Each structure stands twice: as C-alpha cells, then as structure tokens.
Amino acid sequence: MRLAVLGTLPMAAVTAAWAAANAGTEVVYVSDVAPPGKWSTQVTWDGTPRHAQIERVRVGSHTEADAFLLIASREESITLTRQYADSMRGKPVVLAPGGFAIVEAIDKILNTGTSAPSPLGQLPGFPVTGDIELDNVRIRSVKQNFPLGQLGTEDSSALVATFRPWIPDVVRSTLTETALSSTNNLIHPPVLLANAARTEAGEEYLFYREGLSAGAARMICGVDDERLEILRALNQEAVPLTGWFRRYYGAQGLVGETVQEMLVNRPSLADSRGPKTLKHRYVSEDVVYGLAPMEELARRLNVATPFLSALITALSTVCESDLRAAAPRLVDESTILPMSRFAVAGQHQTPPHS
C-alpha cells in the first residue's frame, strides 16, 4: 500500500514523514514547497528515532497511490482533487483538517457518475505537529484517539483500518463529530480577537503564552458550551474541549484542568507566535468555514449561541468582512443534518469508538 500526502501547509511534509516512519514504506509527498526527489530522513518522537523514506514530487506530476491524504486549506484541497481526480478515483481519500461541506465538495468531484466511488473521510485537525530540521523531523505532539469520520456512513471502521498503518492513532467516528470538533476553530478566533490591537500593529507576541488571557479563555469556553448543545441536538457524543485535550495529550504530560492551563502549559505550543495581520487563516478558515456554519446550523436547530454569534460579529467588524456570507450555502451542502437523524426520535445515541 502506498500513500500520497498532498498540500502546502507546513504540517503536510511533517505528516508525510510521520506516515512513512510508521508504515516503514515510502510515502509520496506532492507539493511545490520542497524540490522534487528522494528525501531520506529520520523521524524522532519521544526520544526514539525512526527512518522515513519520502518521494517528493511537484504538483501536477503524475502520481499513483493506493490512498490519499490532503493536508491543505479548503481551497487547495479542492484544487488538488481536481488536478489528481484521475489518480484518486476509486481510492480512499482523507482530509486533515476537514470541516463543513468540504468532503461533500470532494465527493462531487470524484464520485459523480462512477460505479466505484472513493471512500471519503475527514479528521478534525492535523494528526501531528513537528519541525523539519537538517536531517531529522522532530515530532512535537501526536493526537491520540483521533476521530476519523466518513461520508455516507456512521461507521468509519473500514477507512480507519486503511489509514492506521500510516496514522496509528485514528479511531472511528462520524462526519458530524469531526466537523464540529475542530479545536483550532474554537481556540484561534477568540485569542485573535483578544489580541486584535497587537495583531493590527504587527507586534511580536507568543499566541498562547502571552495572548491567551483569562477573558479569551472565557470566550473559548462559552463557544464550546454552545457547540456541545449543537452536538446534543444532533444526537452526537458531546465531548468538551478539555475532554479532547485529555484524549489527545493525556499520555503526553498534559498539565492543568482548565482550557487556559492546558494551552499555556503545552510545551509544543510554547513558541507559537501570533499572526501579524487579521487577514489570516484563523479567520478565513476557522471562522468562515468553521464557526460561521456552526452558528447557521445552530440557528436551524433552534440552539441559542450568544457567545458564538458575538464572536463572529466582533471579528466581522474588526476584519471589515462579512464572515457569515458562505455559512448558509455550506450548511445546505453539508450532509450533517440528514446524517445526524440516525437516532430514534427522542432518544440520545452515542456512536461507539474503537
């Protein structure tokens, strides 16, 4: 089995190396960020180095693989899928991160009019974070018990089994849970808003260590509480943000009981710097394709979202942009609402995890 990792986001190359080290086989990395050719490196996690072999190829070059992993923005994921549709058709494809209606958009490109559709799934974020050094990829954190949801089914077991050789920590989940459980969507926008003056001035600051105030943490928790109510309305498991942190990092020295304590004390986040502009993916991705459709979904479910709505309105004002414009279309195109009705009316059903 051969995996192809596509995307220009910084974590794409790190994920390709991580996947190659786990599987013990060569992984294809499709990107214009690095020159083409063989990349032989070691991957170090928890003090243990392992060998990784990656074949780097330019975007547009012919690529054959048995499975595809997109580590890219929404727009880049759609562009890459169109470019590699002939190679991807009939093969399993996973997006990291996923979101509202992105897997559905990929489905239209790959599976329209085919008798052998590609199994499509998404993760709620990056599987790993790390840094590329001279002859080593240093892994900073690994998300354990990482949910993988699949389009068209409440049981993603087959897709999980396909990708576990490369990403061993994935577990089965639902598309609804993964669309509504991105920790980045919940964290980045409130912290950015709390530091808008710094950001507009182009100041240097540590995003978590200096930017995560008590007020920003209260906003994160307020939005998270409303997200949990949306999940309950959809008959999904309602895992709070702190619960995800414990699942992901509980065995990696997680410190603290509150959102603020957990984030400020995470060694892998210590050097994370704040953006120097408000025109940043923390808004263009996390709000436009994350929080805004979540608010629209809540409206249709009659779930009140005062914290979420206030946050989106404030960011729309400071960014001079209508961040809600795409939300109705994204919810319309999403399969979340019809898929969520698998539970018997009036009964709460929690999808199992493996």
UniProtKB/TrEMBL annotation:
Key words, A-Z: Signal
Annotated Pfam families: Octopine_DH
SUPFAM superfamilies membership: 6-phosphogluconate dehydrogenase C-terminal domain-like (SSF48179)
Record's signal peptide: 1-19
Domain Opine dehydrogenase, first and last residues per copy: 173-318
Single GO MF annotation: oxidoreductase activity
Signal keyword on record: yes
The protein's name in its UniProt record: NAD/NADP octopine/nopaline dehydrogenase
